[in-house]
Each structure stands twice: as structure tokens, then as C-alpha cells.
Amino acid sequence: MNVTIMTENGEIIVDNDVIAKCAGAAACECFGIVGMASINVRDGLAKLLKVENLANGVNVRVEDNKLRIDLHIIVSYGVNIPSVCENLRETVKYKVEECTGLDVVTVNIYVDGVRVID
User: Fold this and answer.
1) Residue-wise burial string across 47-69, b where 16 or more C-beta atoms lie within 10 A, e elsewhere
2) Residue 117 — φ and ψ, nearest 5°?
């Protein structure tokens, strides 16, 4: 499903994948985030996604022109997960709202793995 933004000059249609990539890129900029995760349903293992696949760790839903975003992430070992997630939630909400002009009502975060960073 695409997002339709009405302006005084017409409508703008934004693919959900664009919003997902925006959210994924914003997430990867946050302290303590190693990257986005993709879940292998068969094995139940979290896999770290490469930069070009950031949207695969993000699910965007649109309801009444309001966005609901689910993020699947991998965090760095030793960080305070609740603090990192709160910072992540605020950063993604701000950047996606700035990019689209739409309200982000929820950002759900799923920590799917922990990685030791040298």
C-alpha cells in the first residue's frame, strides 16, 4: 500500500518501501544499533542486513494517513537496550515525519540479536 499526501498543487504518492528505507537509514545512524535484522522463519535466526537491504527489517503500515512502523534491529553488546530503543524511537519518528510530513503514531522495536563489536 502506498501513502498519498495531498498538497495544494496535487497529490504525491510515496511507496511504503521509500518510507521503510528512510526509517532503516535513520535507525542505523543511532548509537548502539549494529544494523537492521531479517528473520529467517525456518531457523528463527536473526541475520544482519546489508545497507542496500535496510527496508527488509522495517514494516510500514498506513492507517488514516498516520504511519505505524515496526523495526527489527540488532544491537551492540553491552549497551543499555531500553535507552538505545528510546533514542531510536525518537530519531526514527522525527526523521520519517520530517521526510513525509505525516504523523508517526507508533514505532515498535523488536531486538532480534546482539553483536559484539571490536
Assistant:
1) bbbeeeebbbbbbbebeeeebeb
2) -110, 130
Mean pLDDT of the chain: 85
Domain CATH number, residue 90:
3.30.70.1350
- 26 burial via Cβ count (<10 Å: 0-12, 13-18, 19+): buried
Task: Give the domain range for residue 106.
Answer: 3-115
How many structural domains does the chain have? 1
Helix, strand, or coil here: 48?
strand
Q: Count the Cβ atoms, other than its own, within 10 Å of residue 84.
A: 19
- pTM of the prediction? 0.83
Per residue in 67-84, pLDDT (tens digit) is: 999 999 989 999 999 999
